[in-house]
Amino acid sequence: MRLIEPDEHEHFLATLQRIGLERDDFDLQETDTTDPRTDECLGLQGYVTVARRSMRVVREYVLGDESDWLEHFRKDLEAGIFDRSK
């Protein structure tokens, strides 16, 4: 099951476009850490790894019910986190 909803993915792409970044420079990787015994009670859980290829910057954000990963991602973009090469 996908943790990132289609509307969240579209919002992610719109954020990149608004800031003027190329979508092909970014990769998203979902990791599901949901315990199958509790998924009906607690919902899906996991994290998304966002990588910017050209800068070799990788950040992880928590996914799940009431997750605000897109807000954290936007703030990191605006702070220049993804512009820093390691």
Cα Rg: 14 Å
Class derived from helix and strand content:
alpha+beta
Beta-strand percent range: 25-35%
Number of individual domains: 1
The total count of strands amounts to 3
Order of strands, main sheet, comes to 1-2-3
Which H/E pattern describes the elements?
HEHEEH
Average pLDDT rating: 88
Low-confidence stretches: none
Organism: Caballeronia humi
Protein name: Transcriptional regulator
Overview of the structural elements:
The protein is of the alpha+beta class. The protein has one domain (6-83). The protein has helices at residues 6-19, 39-42, 69-78, and strands at 26-32, 45-52, 57-64. Strands 1-2-3 form a 3-stranded antiparallel beta sheet, with helices on one face. The relative contact order is 0.19. This is Transcriptional regulator.
Describe the secondary structure blueprint for this structure.
Elements lengths: L5 H14 L6 E7 L6 H4 L2 E8 L4 E8 L4 H10 L8
Antiparallel strand pairs: 1-2, 2-3
Helix pairs in contact: 1-3
Q: Which key terms come to mind for this protein?
A:
86 residues; alpha+beta; 3 strands; globular
Entry summary:
The protein has 86 residues and is of the alpha+beta class.
